[in-house]
Structures are given as C-alpha cells and as structure tokens.
Amino acid sequence: MKKLILISLLFLVSCLSEERNVNKEAKNGFINLKNHSFPLEPFVALTGEWKFYWNTSPENIQESNLDRILNLPQHWNGYQMDYGKLSGFGHATFRMHLELPEDLQETMALTVHEQDTSYAIYINGKYYGGSGIPASNTIHFLPMVKSTIVVLPHNKNLTIDLYVANYVHRKGGVWNDIVLSSYTKAENRLTKHKINETILSSIFAFVGIFFLVMYFYNRDGRQTLGIFLFSLAVLLRTISTGERIVLEFIDMPYWALLRLEYVSWYWSAPLLYHYFYTIFPYDFSKKVGNVFYFLSAILTLGLFLPPVYFTETASIYPIAFVLNGLFILFYLFRAYQKSRMEAKPLLFGIGLILIGASNDVLHAQAVIHTTYIGPSTVVIFVFLQVFTFGRIVRQNIVKTLEFAEEQKQFSSSFSRFVPTEFLYHLGKNDIRQVDLGDQVQKRMTVLFADIRSFTEFSETLTPKENFDFLNSYLQRVGPIIRHNNGFIDKFIGDAVMALFPYNISDAVKAAVEMQEAIRIYNSHRANCGYIPIEVGIGIHTGNLTLGILGEHKRMEGTVISDAVNLASRIEGITKLFSSRIVISAETFIEASDNLGFHYRLLDRVNIKGKTESVFVVEVLDGYEPEKSKRLIACKDDYTLALDAYRREDFEEAKEGFASLLDKNPDDSVSRLFLERCKDALEKSKLESGTS
C-alpha cells in the first residue's frame, strides 16, 4: 500500500511539474520589466492593478489619472460603480502599460487562457487576436471559449488592451492569468497542456471501455458499471474544461460546450457515490445517494434554461459537491474500520479527489490562482480502482479456481455413484440437469459378473471381512471395465453389471482381462491362506433404456431392458456349464470377425421368462492359459462331437466327448455333454425294453 501511495504521489507531481508563473504586480496599470531576466523566469503573470474602462471599447478610451482600477485576475461582478454594483453582463476594456528589457532578443508572446466569455487583445491599439467576438450589444456579440497566444511586436513599450464582453454567463471579466513569455515557451506550454489533457482523456476513455466490457461479461458486477459511468463523467468534464480539447476534434458551439461542462460536473459526484455504494452496500446509505441523484437530475433539467440561469449553480453546487465527498469519506472510513476489502486504497483515492476538487472549485471561482489538478487526482483514483479491481479479480479467480476444484472433486465423487458416462449417454453434462423421467434408447452390450457360491462363502466371514473382501475384489475388476470403454452401472451384492456402449469386443476383452485379474488375485489369496474364488461372466447385446427412476426425493440412474435380464440369465448359465465366460449367440453374430478371441458353441438353453431357447457361446480365453490352449487345440474334435450330439447320434457323440475328456480331464463342458449322452442312451434302452 505504501508503494502504491508513493507511485500515485509521484504521478501527481509529474502531472503538475512545469515552470510556474512569476507574478508581477501592476501598479495603476503599469509594470516595469526592464530588469527582468526571462531566461531565468520565463513566465510572467501580469497581475495586479489593471485600468478598468466599463462599457468602453479600446478605441474609445481616454486615459486620465482618475481611471478606475481592477485587480486581475478577477471577475467584475460586484464592482462598485457610481450608480451601484456591476452584474456579470456588459463589456469593458482592461489596460496595462508594459516596459520590456532593452536587450530582449526573443520574440515575445501573450497567453490568455480560456475565459468564460469572449475577448479581444489589442497591442498599441492594433487587434492581435482573441476568442469569439466581444461587442457592446448582444446582436454583434459571439461567445467562444478557448486559449489564445498572440505574438507581440518588437517594441520595448507596449500598451495591452484586453477587451471583454459577456451577455450569457453569470460572471464577466478575467479570471485566468494573462501570461507574458517568449513565443516558443508559450507554444510549448500550451501544447503540453493539450497533450496532458489528451492523455488524461485517453486514460478515462480506456478505463471506461475496459470496465464497460467487464460489465457485459459479468452483469452482476455493478461496481464495474459504476466506475464506467464515473469515468465517462470525468472524461466529458476533462475534454470540456481547461484547454477544452474537444474543440480540437469537434466544432462545438458555445451553448453546447457550456452545457457539456456543467452536466459532466453535475453527475460526477452522484456517480462517484453510486460506485462506492455498489462496492460497500452495507456501509453506504442508499437514501443519501438518492438525494444527490435527485439534486443532479433537477440541475440537469435547469440546463434547458439560458446559461445566465444555470451558471448561477456554479456558486451553489460546489457545496453539494464537497458535501457528497465528505459523505463518501465518512462512509468509506467506516468501511475501513470494519476492515472491508480494499477500503484502505479507496480511502486514499477519495482523499486525493477531494483535494483536487476543492482546488479546482476555488481556482474556478478565482478565490485562489493555481491550476486544475482534479483530472490528475481522478486519474490516480481510477488507477487505484484498476489496482483494486485487479486484486478483486485475482481473489475471485482464486475463489473460482477453488470452487472449480471443489466442483471437480464433487463431480468426481458423484461420478462414483452416477457414472459420467451414464449422464453423457443420457444427454446431460451435469448431474444437476438430471430430472425424474429422463430416458434415452440405446443399443449396448451388457456384462454381468457374479462370484460363484458367494452366499456360502460369505457365511464364513464377518460383516467387516465381507466388505473388505468385496472392495478388494471390485477394485481389481472395476478399472478393467473402464479401461475397455465400459462403465459400471450398478453393484448387486457381489454381482457387477457393466455397460459397453461402443464395441462388443470391448466387453469380451474386459471379461477375459477380469478372469486374468481374478487368477492373480487368487494367487495372493492362496499366499495368505484364503480359498480361491470363481467368477462367472455373461454377456449379451441388445436395445435398452437408460433413465432416471424413483421419486423427487430419491432418484437413481438405472437401465431397464430385456437385454439386461437376458445378460443376467446368461451369467447364470455359466454355472450350468461350469464355464468362465459365456456370451449370447446374438452378441457372437453381431461381433462376427471382430470378436478377437477363441470360442466354441455350447447349446440352446431355456431362459426363464423367454418362450424360445437361446443359443450360447463360450469364450475359451477366459480359462488359464494352459487349459485354454488345450481346449483350442481340441476345438475341431469338440465341434464334431457337438454336431453328433445335435443330430442325436448319441453313440458317436459319446465317443467324441469321452475322447475329449481323455485329453482334457478338466473340460467341464465335454463332461456335461458326455453325461447327457449317457442319459440319452440309457433312456433309449429303457424305452426299447418297454416297447
């Protein structure tokens, strides 16, 4: 904070750093500069006693020792004449006799900074320049506000006449310094003033646009709109006062320029209050802000009146302006006491604005003769807002990142209950979008895996051991399913139901890898003295419905389909054949050559709930590598034996399956078919003996 204050003060000093005027007090309309060194003190303000000729143009002046005197810079309002005090309306000439150094080599110039009325400059009775057209009546009078530099003749004795006329503004006369310097110095200074004001205006414009864009990105950030409106008001104030740089780009008439100056002045205070209210709504009074809004609205309506009326507010509104600043200072100090975020730099900024505003008001009223510093202090304030806003944005970004991380963790945690893949296929990006009754039709492959004889097995374990065992088992098979582009829909006790939405071979590959993982798991269990486990896996492909089931207070994602029931039944068939992996014929046919594994046909089996039997296929790669190789090697013999069995040539089938068992005693499928052949032959003999 200390560094920020130091940088701000250095900026203010740099904005004000220029060669100051040296005041030379005139006495009875005369200044002797014969001994003045312009190289050492290049700018001389011609202040003091100027001769004052009321309602008189330069060509009609008749000098005498009884001429009236008026100290400049000063308005003529209230000047005591024989018939009373002067108002702001009228015309007059101010005369000064000037004696310059004999050895002066430079071309000298006179700078008359902007006044609120029109004026003309005469040197030794000759017109040299001015602003607008001063005249003795309103018909020929043309108001205009601008600074003027006139080149002086090479003469050591000069008579300067400043002819001023006013019929529109509340005050008439000269309220800015009349400065004598070399022409080069005068031009450089005026150019510097215009450059400074252009830079300040550019800063306000840039900051205003920046915060306006930020507001459109975040409509809830009202403080960004507040600083935009305040920057806009100060921008209009900057380009319509001082050197009035707006005239460099737009030929604006006097009445429009004057109203632009006043409307920007009227609204800068309430908009500043509004900005702070949006930042500290609990510390600033909304009612106080509304009072200033109402006052500014009334004054703005007054701009429809002639300038002589609304310019009268210049002597009243500063009170409201300063009062507004004091309210801001009070409420901001209260926010600072409550340790509100960023209250400290804002308190420093508003203090600078109050100093600058007070200086500018007193300077405009000719109470003091300094220079305008309000825009510079506002620039510092605006930069403080950028700094403050940057810190707020940074803190918001940190909070947003933390919130995003929390949301990510939340989503990650929730995905362990409702898989993100389930939401994706349901057409939802977020669990919050899910509603009761959402559903979608898909064709997928369903995998069921179940531990054999788990009921008897679990009875030997405590409840905690059961949970530990199941978690240990599921931690091994779950990643395999995800790795093969599937996702677990649900756990049903020790059973796992998984869905594979893309490729049938993904499900078969996952089943083979699951069996391999179970074999490794069993070796670890054997080392610990635990009995091994066997898992049967059934796979079927079909159309199914993913959706949200339940009621409004309790919902869950589920899958409803005959394909799911069939996959579950096929898993049960693995017990019948003592097989590891069994798939439906429909899955086998649809996969075709893309199955990628060795298989053999089993048989048609009756499925509970199905009117027609279902043909099933065994995947041989689910066994141990040695057994799998032996079964694959005997696949042709098995096919011949099965063909005989299906032709009901049970003798041939019996011999074929018996031969297979001689080669593979652990071939449970061949053993089952051999027993069926024996039963069929025995039944045939009984039927023959009976007949």
UniProtKB/TrEMBL annotation:
Any one Gene Ontology BP term: intracellular signal transduction
A single GO molecular function term of this UniProt record: adenylate cyclase activity
InterPro entries, per database record: 7TMR_DISM_rcpt_extracell_dom1, A/G_cyclase, Adenylyl/Guanylyl_Cyclase_3/4, Galactose-bd-like_sf, Nucleotide_cyclase
One Pfam family from the record: Guanylate_cyc
Residues passing through the membrane, by range: 199-217, 224-242, 262-280, 292-310, 316-333, 345-366, 372-393
UniProt domain Guanylate cyclase: residue ranges: 445-571
Name of protein: Adenylate cyclase family protein
Lineage: Bacteria, Pseudomonadati, Spirochaetota, Spirochaetia, Leptospirales
